[in-house]
Task: inverse folding
């Protein structure tokens, strides 16, 4: 039995550059990964398949349409004789919540299959399979902080030398990404200059990195808020916690985050927020 984590993906910044003629959007995003995750296991001794359990399994939908199996089939099409097996996914992250859970699950499957078949890290066929599976899958294959650009096909080098601490808060709603893009109203081929978008680099200190993130933005936030005002409640609740540095929405919503200077402040903020919002999904976590 092979086992791996599928960590939450958080977009610390997200700049929508343009809508391409093919309908996809070019993005620039600073992506990090949390200590909270789904868990994926692979049993090579059984036929290909997927079972799902865990607190958010019901919301994950039909196993046959899961990205884990889509990624497996994409890699099998590129690696003749690929050994597979039976996957079991323990679903712990909220679904459709701006945390890239399905994409991270698919990337976890590719890592397990690469390990099972002796494929080296960075094998081009794994990368191609990730791209064929979904836009967010390539950045999740090696879950490290980095810039992601284009449709998710262009990845920068890992950035952070030490973790930063955060509270993630989800008010229990689902915001479909296509609906958010539609509300933004980009026309095919349209580009927008929405202001400077800071890009981190290797020689930033920890404090400089946090300051750079604080000067960033998420271009999808206003559109998501218009569709789901509860996201504003999450932002306001996080902004009311002591010691926060930056509060923002992740991805296309509905999870929001607040950054803190250390683990103690993040845990205290999560405890405070959980006491006031008992129906929300709230986690303190390190981001890397």
Result:
């Amino acid at each position: 039995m092979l086992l791996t984590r599928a960590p939450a993906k958080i977009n610390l910044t997200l700049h929508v550059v343009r809508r391409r003629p093919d309908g996809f959007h070019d993005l620039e995003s600073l992506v990090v990964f949390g200590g909270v995750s789904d868990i994926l296991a692979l049993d090579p001794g059984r036929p290909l398949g997927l079972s799902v359990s865990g607190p958010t399994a019901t919301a994950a939908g039909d196993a046959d349409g899961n990205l884990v199996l889509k990624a497996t089939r994409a890699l099998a099409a590129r690696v003749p004789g690929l050994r597979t097996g039976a996957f079991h996914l323990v679903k712990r992250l909220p679904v459709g919540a701006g945390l890239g859970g399905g994409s991270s699950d698919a990337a976890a499957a590719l890592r397990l299959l690469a390990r099972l078949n002796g494929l080296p890290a960075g094998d081009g066929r794994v990368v191609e399979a990730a791209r064929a599976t979904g836009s967010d899958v390539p950045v999740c294959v090696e879950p490290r902080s980095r810039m992601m650009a284009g449709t998710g096909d262009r990845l920068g080098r890992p950035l952070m030398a030490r973790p930063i601490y955060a509270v993630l808060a989800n008010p229990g709603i689902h915001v479909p990404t296509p609906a958010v893009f539609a509300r933004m109203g980009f026309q095919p081929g349209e580009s927008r200059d929405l202001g400077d978008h800071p890009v981190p680099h290797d020689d930033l200190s920890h404090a400089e990195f946090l300051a750079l993130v604080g000067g960033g933005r998420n271009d999808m936030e206003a559109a998501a808020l218009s569709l789901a005002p509860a996201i504003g409640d999450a932002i306001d609740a996080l902004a009311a916690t002591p010691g926060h540095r930056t509060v923002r929405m992740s991805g296309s919503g509905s999870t929001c985050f607040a950054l803190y200077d250390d683990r103690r402040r993040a845990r205290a903020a999560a405890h405070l927020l959980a006491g006031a919002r008992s129906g929300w999904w709230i986690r303190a976590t390190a981001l890397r």
